[in-house]
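Protocol step 6 of 9: fold each sequence in the batch and record its structure tokens directly after the sequence line. For illustration, a two-sequence batch is reproduced in full.

Sequence one:
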Amino acid sequence: MKVKLFDESHEKDLEDKINTFLSEMEGTLVDIKYQVAICANGEEQIYCFSAMIIYEK
């Protein structure tokens, strides 16, 4: 069993990276875990979109 981690500041970037990985992945997809974190820095909000893909090779 293996894992691949992704961390992006925009949802679309995360989506693109995951789709690219899945299209090139050799093996069987087991699960995808998804998480969003938000941090306030003054008046600015910083988003972190992350995912962990679990697969068997």
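Sequence two, same batch, same settings:
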Amino acid sequence: MGNSVNPNTVNKMNMFNTRVTAKGVYRRRIWLRTAGIVALICILLLLISFSLAYFVDKAGHFTVNVPEGLSSRSISISETADFAVASTFLKADPVESMDNITESWLPADVADVDGSHNGDNHIAYTFYLRNNDDEAIDYAATIDILSVYKDTDHAVRVKVYRNGEPTLYAKPQKANGEPEPDTTPFTSNKKVMSQTYEGLEAGGIDKYTVVIWLEGEDPECVDDILGGEMKMAMQFHVLETEEVKA
């Protein structure tokens, strides 16, 4: 005579199987939901990272500004000598990828073209500064290093023309701290130049051209700086009498 199965036992087994299946479905739904949320967060983080990277890449490597409120006297800057559009902030077009060159490769008319006029491997930017006051002023000009990646500053050259007169700046040699040949050393690790100019007449205009490149003849222009980056900002402000005396 065969063994018989208690109907109640079958029902309990069916209930157990149903419960197990329900729990499995529930857990699967939770897992899928969690995985979806994690994936969404990852996508959002990637999008944010991409946006930030794009902004940094497109932010420009050289800007010019005149901070407001530092003096009762007024100066302004413009990309054209007629000051059709006067401003307190200017931005040079960036060079997306810069290979090394040497100074003799720069265009002969590099200081004669207004606004941004970059070459394939150099930044070139011409602008004008005007004294808007009714009497002569003295003012300070600085170029600050905002950020450096991969020691690019050791191979960069910054040539500043003021009213056609050039000064070539470079960081001192890493090996011995001596100036690079035919250059004026950076003022400090964070500053390319810091100059004071006196006696700009009322309504007077000074013309500036700034040229930036990687000097291929610099011993520090090596493969280690590939992918490097350097951002700079030039700043002007009117000097008060006590600042000039100091």
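Proceed to step 7 once all outputs are recorded. Observation for sequence two: The first helix runs from residue 7 to 58.
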